[in-house]
User: Fold this.
Amino acid sequence: MVRRIYDQGRSLLARYAALNGRNTAAAITLYGFLALFALAVLAIAVLGYVSSVSTDDVAQRLVGWLGVHGAAAKTVTDAVTTAQQSRTTATVVGLLGLVWIGSSFALSVASAYDAAWQVPTRPARSRLVGLGWLIGAFVLLAVGGVVTSFVGSLPAILAVVTLVVSLGVNTGLWLWTSWLLPNRHAPLQATLMPAIVGAIGLEILKVLGGYVVPRLVENSSALYGAIGIVFALIAWLWVFGRLVVLITVLEVRPWEEPTQGR
Assistant:
């Protein structure tokens, strides 16, 4: 049993390397970070509108919520002030950037699937497909967030229900990704188990993002300023990119093994 698991793991890693998984994951990390940057610009625009009409000290509340100090805290305060002055421009730039870079992020994920299945990438309409995937993913995550928040307000004994709901949303997101983005059609049995594995991996990343990354931000911001926040985000996306490539390998492996055995 142990030998079989070991052999399967070695085979999986070998296939990952053969697909040039590091470079593919690096592309996902890069475009994911750039998409976050575009989203941050849009968030700053929204923040500018909110802070301009709010009577509360939005900057100080953000600093307390993020748990940053020193140079990072000053960066947040300056960002709020700048947002109030340039909210219209930031809205336009943020929307255009999110559409373009977000679709590029979707294309990098699609390329990981296409490379694993050894199929050509989609034609020019692939960017539109990527935008459709982004919208669907946003809806799934938004609905999942609302449901999870509602279930989370129930007694602690039902915490397992929250976990099940979150894993269900994660699985739906992976199935949506595998169904829409790649330039191939695969039956549900080929995508379901990798989607479940991906859902568990994504849930672990959520825990890391919710508990570990804020601690990294708090510690690193004191030492490195705002650049510490960037390091923490890149580290999270670095793991996420490798998770995406791993799921594509898990998805295609059962269909390659019969061929390899002949």
In short: The chain has a mean pLDDT of 76. Residues 188-224 form the longest helix (37 residues).
